[in-house]
Amino acid sequence: MPDNALRLDNPPPVVAVRMCYGHLRAAAALADHWGTEIVEADREPNADVTDRLVWSLARRGYHALSRLSQRGVGHAMLEKLLDRLTAIDDREPPSDPHTPRPVRILDTLIRRGFGKTLGRRLDHGGTPAVATFYANAIAAERHSSVPVACVVTDSHVHRVWAPRRPAASRIHYLVPVEETATCLERYGVPRRRIRTTGFPLPPELVGTAGSEILAENLRRRLGRLRRSTESSGPERPIRLTVAIGGAGAQAAHVRTLLAELRADLVGRRFALTLVAGTHQGIGRRFRAWADEARRSGVPPENLEVLSAVEYAEYYHRFNRVLADTDLLWTKPSELVFYAALGLPLILEPAMGDHERRNRTLVVDAGAAADRPAPGEIAADLRRRLADGWFLDAAENGRARLIARGTERIASYCSKELYGEFTGN
Question: 45 preceded by cis ω (within 30°)?
Fold first, then answer.
């Protein structure tokens, strides 16, 4: 299909919130594809004072729980709380006849007007809407008359992603893998309203139909990983990019990583990019640790920190780094779907049930490995490079996950969402 068939003269607004990077990352890829702006549902003029307060409390609570569940007094109890809040019911159908409490709370908030300002703006715009966070999609359905699509950003999701009465809902769900579709069907979402599209990856890393961007990046990466299995080694250091999440819950692990990889950084076996995102406190810590490592002999060109004030700047700089990355060290969040680019993954421990499911997806696909134990990091990475494990992981991820999710979502919207809107 030609590229212009996937673009719309009047593209849908892409609605997101600054809850965590996963929802923003998905929204940014779609907004880039359509050449439009992200509608931030937690900011003026899309949210009134009450809405902004609710979003602020939710964001602060989530980030605090994520960080405290990894360290400090009572972290084990808080980790269990995070598990409970994100627990996914695998029973078929769920045996509990009662609607889960989070679903009831969200339903009550929306019935009392949460998201009404957003709904009015969507109606005023007069086009279908695409949301990357469940609360926005459910609020848009109630408070506007436009067709709504919800882009799902995990392989399995909590019941709260579907409205209280899912069978009567008109929300279209665009999901990254078939397991997500099965999960939503268990919650009562009609299968005709679900389409497996893949996760929306950045156009600057994938390109469009007929583009060579994805293939060229993969060709270069496979070449470097293949040469790392040979005695001569690659012509440049293997680039390891460490991106551990917007909440910064696992930032302290980076110092251990720096210490254990110091000899390999000095010897130019590896180059390291530490991704702080827009978290200024983490950025300062990373820069201080990087300066310390450089003073101990690490070449400056082998160690860099990616930090930005605004999300848009961070997002595009991160994409440019990934184009030249050989190994991605991250937590099993939405970045697991970047394995579809042919990026081998090294995974931090999961936080919450949804991340455990994401981890299982890519580990079972042969595209990811768990983080090595402290004291074994350098040896484990060298071994996996030498025996070709990372090379195989790159090929597995590219073969078993969907890379062109952005185009598939755009195509679905142009055919189904706009068709429903016009009555065709």
Answer: yes
